[in-house]
Amino acid sequence: MKANKDKTLDRLSRLEGQVRGISGMVKADRYCMDILAQTSAIRSAILGVEKLILENHAEHCVETAIQSGDPEEQRAKFDELIGLLQKASK
Predict the structure, then answer these.
(1) What would the pLDDT profile of 26-65 be if each residue is shown by its tens digit?
(2) Which domain holds residue 36?
(3) Distance between CA atoms of 2 and 42, rounded to whole angstroms?
(4) pTM
(5) Which residues lie closer than 8 Å to 47 by C-beta, 6 or more apart?
(6) How far is Cα 89 from Cα 83, in angstroms, rounded to an integer?
(7) Could you tell me if 45 and 8 are in contact, meaning their C-beta atoms sit under 8 angstroms apart?
(8) Cβ neighbours of 51 (radius 10 Å)
């Protein structure tokens, strides 16, 4: 879990820098296509962060619910995942 957390924080730090970079590009009236290329890179990076967090959730939170044998806890984790997938598909 620690390695995954460190990897996630590292990616978030890079994203923070990318967003500041785009802000600077807008202030400097850079070419729109250059800015859009950077926003596309950020979108891709966000998906990578989401993937890491989802993997962590599945490996720890969902696995714990499954091992607990508690149907209510299992259903809650399942419903969380379904809710997330429904939001992502909109």
Answers:
(1) 999 999 999 999 999 999 999 999 999 988 888 888 889 9
(2) 2-88
(3) 24
(4) 0.78
(5) none
(6) 10
(7) no
(8) 12
Q: Which two tokens stand for residue 68?
A: 């607990």
Dihedral of CA 42/45/50/51: which sign?
A: positive
Reported as type and span, the H/E element at residue 58 is none
Instruction: Please tell me the distance from the alpha carbon of residue 90 to that of residue 83, in angstroms, as a whole number.
Output: 11
Count of residues making up the chain? 90
Alpha helix (H) residue ranges in the chain: 2-27, 32-56, 63-68, 71-88
Q: What does the block give as tokens for 32? A: 């729109």
CATH at 50: 1.20.58.1000
Number of folded domains that form the chain: 1
CB 35 within 8 A of CB 69: no
Tokens 């995954």 belong to 4
Q: What is the pLDDT of residue 44?
A: 95
